[in-house]
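G., before I forget:
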Amino acid sequence: MSTGSNYGKSFTISTWGESHGEAVGVVIDGCPAGLDLSSEDVQIELNKRKPGKSIFSTPRKEDDKAHIISGVFEGKTTGTPISIIVYNNNQKSKDYSEIATYYRPGHADLTYDMKYGFRDYRGGGRSSGRETIGRVAGGAIAKKILSEINIKLTTYARTIGNISIDDNNFNENEIWNNDLCLPDKNRVEKVEKHLLDLIKNGNSCGGIIECKINNIPSGLGEPVFDRLDAELAKSVMSIGSIKGVEIGNGFTAASLTGLENNDFYNYSDDRLIKETNNAGGILGGISDGSQVILRAAVKPTPSIKSTQRTVNKDKNNIDINIKGRHDPIIVPRAVIVVESMVAITLVDMLFRNMNSKMDNIKKLYLD
Amino acid sequence: MSTGSNYGKSFTISTWGESHGEAVGVVIDGCPAGLDLSSEDVQIELNKRKPGKSIFSTPRKEDDKAHIISGVFEGKTTGTPISIIVYNNNQKSKDYSEIATYYRPGHADLTYDMKYGFRDYRGGGRSSGRETIGRVAGGAIAKKILSEINIKLTTYARTIGNISIDDNNFNENEIWNNDLCLPDKNRVEKVEKHLLDLIKNGNSCGGIIECKINNIPSGLGEPVFDRLDAELAKSVMSIGSIKGVEIGNGFTAASLTGLENNDFYNYSDDRLIKETNNAGGILGGISDGSQVILRAAVKPTPSIKSTQRTVNKDKNNIDINIKGRHDPIIVPRAVIVVESMVAITLVDMLFRNMNSKMDNIKKLYLD
Amino acid sequence: MSTGSNYGKSFTISTWGESHGEAVGVVIDGCPAGLDLSSEDVQIELNKRKPGKSIFSTPRKEDDKAHIISGVFEGKTTGTPISIIVYNNNQKSKDYSEIATYYRPGHADLTYDMKYGFRDYRGGGRSSGRETIGRVAGGAIAKKILSEINIKLTTYARTIGNISIDDNNFNENEIWNNDLCLPDKNRVEKVEKHLLDLIKNGNSCGGIIECKINNIPSGLGEPVFDRLDAELAKSVMSIGSIKGVEIGNGFTAASLTGLENNDFYNYSDDRLIKETNNAGGILGGISDGSQVILRAAVKPTPSIKSTQRTVNKDKNNIDINIKGRHDPIIVPRAVIVVESMVAITLVDMLFRNMNSKMDNIKKLYLD
Amino acid sequence: MSTGSNYGKSFTISTWGESHGEAVGVVIDGCPAGLDLSSEDVQIELNKRKPGKSIFSTPRKEDDKAHIISGVFEGKTTGTPISIIVYNNNQKSKDYSEIATYYRPGHADLTYDMKYGFRDYRGGGRSSGRETIGRVAGGAIAKKILSEINIKLTTYARTIGNISIDDNNFNENEIWNNDLCLPDKNRVEKVEKHLLDLIKNGNSCGGIIECKINNIPSGLGEPVFDRLDAELAKSVMSIGSIKGVEIGNGFTAASLTGLENNDFYNYSDDRLIKETNNAGGILGGISDGSQVILRAAVKPTPSIKSTQRTVNKDKNNIDINIKGRHDPIIVPRAVIVVESMVAITLVDMLFRNMNSKMDNIKKLYLD
């Protein structure tokens, strides 16, 4: 069953398209009727993953224009599938004859060949970062749904290279004010300098993306396998370059004691609150209504100018220097992708939770 | 859609049962016909998660006896669903009237109430660790399938408290020779001492489980969402107490450069090899045939004797001391659960990969 | 993907078990919390498919006792999987050595061998009618959910042999008053006589089952593939012995004109009504709130005493006379199975429809 | 879960698009790598459902040109999703202001309003026959896969109005030689005359489509719910206008005796054969390798010129005469749609059957 390009159960996205094909796109199914939606809503999100916005990302000019071609009528969703297409205008010209002959380290060139017998080698084909366009378009719609019930996501670069933000300087409004998605403006200059050094040396670095979900309803997540944390782990780990996912204290919890890690409860002014949120808002796989916190580890950009050892089609060991200008860091462009996958997962879990109680069934069908 | 108790697409397990109901169990669907299978095959694995094997785990005597009651005929699987049941013999007596009145910190008591309006409070009900019996039984069958094509899993405690194994002393044969699933016998005494101290203080600790998959075929994992790493992340994160999952270098990759993290290729004696395996055997979500490495962060046992602050049904803030003897560490009993989920995921991905090429279709239907 | 023993998306049943194994059973997942449920609720439905209730059905004494062993706490469903088991008490003794050597015409003996390489030949194994016990148990729960929102199913034998009921004599209360599930008591004697003749001649007959759904909410059914009629067609056709399914006018519609078949609308006392219901309550795959009507064609019982030609293991052409007493008609016992599958499908579609409008999402999450 | 626009498990199609949107399309996921595929392969099939080919179908000129925009590289499928788009060139101009104000009898106007609160009224929106373009495009690919292992489908009009073909004159080569898809050329003139009469009277008629599958492998179909016949019933019933589906003898089996309906076996020249094929090639939901036969009842075209009674937005009872020229019969254009859905289902079941035996797993992974 090679059908891995579909995500979700009650709210689903199906992405398609290769880096250098005619277009990439996504079909969103399960969007309720009556949501206000325009191409601009999608465009705003797509622009957040646009390359070329700074010296730190690839200067290829991509004109990622979103076209909604179904599922919307007179400005509102109709309840039927929403098809969104983005044409690959700037992808045609490049020469990929060299890349076709060898396997780039850290890329999926080898594994696609192994699985399918051959590959579309132009720009990575299906394994290209352009595949995430469909995710971000789907995320745009998911976030519109979430905003209707006041759920809010905040996603940003926590660490780039080995430079982390200072939580005391955290300012949500800064995230999209700099090209690095850093919520701490005091770190911007330092990180920029680090990246310029990496570029100079033909190298790259990794980092950590953090996502916070505020005002999430309690009760989201299905026991036993489709827990909210498990679903988030899958959806975020499905993004290329992500090598780890953690919730709340995550790997740090492994080094704490129970007394340190348990979140105590108390009633304060008749409201049940937790003294801490080490669990990251999820217990037994189900949201407790407090903030959900997720972190994802992003590997360094594999395309680097430095000399690398690899093999070619003729089974020779060769040295390569990958041409072109590449982002020395994936994190800033991946921030919106992580946020999109989290949003899509949340909508799916919201819808899946609707029949958890008989009272809900009666509320919708007896009133 | 509260249907979260089913895992897998081509090879599925559906678990059911509460800690203090009559039984717990699992239905495995998608097991091919013609596999040798007996209850003993399942029992061997269930015994690995048995409590009471040492002073470090709960002394409740559980008699977890596996009964295969369908899907096997004359010692072989028939291709139809395999139902396995384990009766809850020792669960009836205890008094849960107190636990019913308050929310235990770090447990799912609160969230089940939030989601469903009430809960089966006896021993955690569905959120109890006993739910993993079905996973381990399913894993036993998955591992039998994997062994038929020589795939081998090795899973163990990498870190307990803050004590990690020394990879130089790694000995696979030690894993099931000590009650802590430590592959480094030099660490056993030190960890035991640490756990005894925790018990004395009414506290607990977390740790890290590591799983290695050897001899995995290349090509497993479906782009784009159902990647091998994404599926593993979900299946492992779906285990209670797991707060983070990483593949290969994982979170460490976030602090490396591209030059450090990329795995270079070369041909050695006509065999394509990688100089390193920082990617943990997966590129673009697809296995490359080298060892897959996964780590999971386990939180400290939430049930501790130390005084904790919480709230009760009458909305009072209270102090509690959880009675009974509890494991000061979840890791050793969770090792076989992690291995089971990895095995189940692998079989699912093996089956899903079978139609990746037209050649495979022809091989099975034209010969 | 041999995983065909699971049905439903938002409300699912997973059946397991062979005719002559230790037990048969079902796991129901997706049942909302807070529904009153006892084993007796299930038993009442199981008794409707019980054999041995008359001379017309097999005299094997089956003691089909339902045990609910998970998912219910203090008389209410908890939202977690409901596991129901029925032990096969009376199945052990019989000698199946002969049946193992040849293929019974009209049974699945041959195809199971073809698919799996061998088969559990005892009483048909998985392809036995006993497999429907799980469906009926699942249907019992589905019907309880439906009754909470006043949806009502009426299912009965429309035709047995070539004798059909007279709609003018239709009396719903008669259905379970006779062993043939005939809603027309004037036909009972005539059908009984016909069946006695068939028994005498070692033969059997087929028939037609009809199901009506009253008080169904409008809007059920998902375009385009998961239409209500398509889902019903699948769930009913999945019952052994069913060879055809139709909705509303069904095959008769094929011989009508548009003017005859279209249902005209009008407002009567401010209520939108249809002058006729040829469509059987479904347009574009979506319920319109009027009565849904479905009919299923049931083939004649394949196990007959008359001499039949078949082949044995040694590849000889042989004549057989199937021993034992068998129902000369499947219809009466299949009535409750059809009703169960329709009920399960309806609950699934009810739950799947809950997020069709943004207003519903807001109603459940903003109030 | 309003996600009904996706069909299949191991080979899936996701259709999208409205009659009068910018385009309609389909994403096919699960197509193996290495299949030769061009837009022309799809175009040939799309042309079979093209309107305007005779006086009997709507004269709207539709320019249904297939564009494959992903999943194919250098003439071969790559194993990744195949996106096919067909622009709605001729749909823009018409005035739908009137149709927006009332409910057309026999159409989905009312039920879409009921489900979603409003509808895209232009040409039926999502419930338009144009939705089947995606199915036919998916079917084109499915049929290419089937032909690689020599499976062949033959689909045609069996009955139009009340005129049926004479099986003695059956000639497969005639099917696409006349505009009515009749395999019996002696019936063409008679049917044409009947249709002209209907047009004259502003009326329409229904009919029956028959599909035969030759050279199907044995073993296809998963017990218990995902039987081959159940899956076919769903996929065919999901086509608009289909009101009934039957396999083999179908509804006729209901009126036969066991002795008449059972298919006897014998060995002839060492080959196992059946004396008859009343079961239509499926026993216990699994193919036995003989011809599979399916029939579908098609309702008469609901759009007719004759005066019909309905209601309008202002809740008035009104008389309407639907404008424009409409097909007096749906059958000929639906033939290729039925064939497509059968082909898609078959490929899905072929792939799902691949792991039915351990031997198959070993064959693919150990060789």
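The CA atoms of residues 68 and 305 of chain B lie 38 Å apart. Helices of chain B lie at 39-48, 109-116, 132-148, 188-200, 228-237, 258-261, 331-352, 358-365.

More on Monday.
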